[in-house]
Amino acid sequence: MASPADFNLSQGEGGRTALITGDWTAVLMGEANERLESAIGGASDVTIDLSQVGRCDTAGAYGLLKAASLAKSPPKFVARPELTRLLELVDRAVKTEPTRIVERPALYQLFDRIGRGVIHLGYEAFDTMVFFGHLLVATGRAIANPRRVRWAACFALAERAGLDAIPIVMLTTFFIGAVVGLLGANLLTTFGAQVFVVELIGVAVLREFNVLITALLLAGRSASSFAAEIGSMKMNQEIDAMQVLGIDAFDALVFPRFFALLMTIPLLVFAATLAGLAGGLVVAWSQLGLGPVFFFQQLVDNVGPKQFWVGMSKAPVLAVIIAGIGCRQGMEVGGDVESLGRRVTSAVVHAIFATILIDAVFAVIYMKLNI
Questions:
Q1: What total number of domains does the chain contain?
Q2: What digits encode the pLDDT tens for the residues 52-69?
Q3: How far is residue 346 CA from its own chain's centroid?
Q4: Torsion angle, CA of 18/23/27/33, rounded to 10 degrees?
Q5: Which end of the chain has fewer CB atoms at under 10 Å, N or C?
Q6: CATH at residue 21
């Protein structure tokens, strides 16, 4: 039964003895420690007997040590072993010097952040190579033994992550094609060369905007979805349970998403091409009077299928990058919701940045090859 903290002070031949009783805890200590300070403050040859103490926590131990520090000479403690260890622990904590806050110059902090960022970038690059290496092994296993692939999951993800995006992809590229047509009509009409609007629309849509807009929409739509799905499973320890059962998470989770995006992105790019050309055709027909027959004849004669295949060649690479980034960020999720949100955001940002960077690299390569 709990009893309030108290003490009895007696005078003997060997000096004063303070018999401590009751529970010396933060709740029951009250003002007993202050009265003890007044009783033994400035006294010498003091013995503090803790044999009758019930419970004692760090607050009670601190009160006893503070009262003992006011004595003229260090008191002698008589206590059970567990109380002795508690007093020693609190005494070391009290005597520990606080950590000094070092004020760094602003320039030092700037270079410190830059250095940490470079190191973090190196770790990220290494982890990315490890992830893609594991994905390559999983792909090799799937090619060697197609029966181990979860085809139901692959086709379900292809429908949800790829085919369901056709409406938004076509609508977006339709307006992109219309905007390119309007800009070309306004600019080329000034020079009396409005007939070249068809070539401008054809090259822009077939070579760049069809695959770029599709990849950007998939980066925001599918990469975030992959990261959230896998990250949620990581938070709930479902991936750990799969590993205990002997199921490779790459075979069950990463490869189906990679295969689904790789399989559907050519269809999405083709649909985006048709929609972009339709948007340009609407503008050329309504603003410049260039009919559909003339429009498509100009495309065949002056643009040709080469531009379409140049744009289509980028699609598999962008599919691999988008699926890989989304799945990798999901696999890196920790055990809290903040980590999930941070990784989903990183998946979208990294996928968009990688899409634009790879498109620029392809543009430089094709320029060097004169394609």
A1: 2
A2: 888 888 888 888 888 888
A3: 5
A4: 0
A5: N
A6: 3.30.750.24
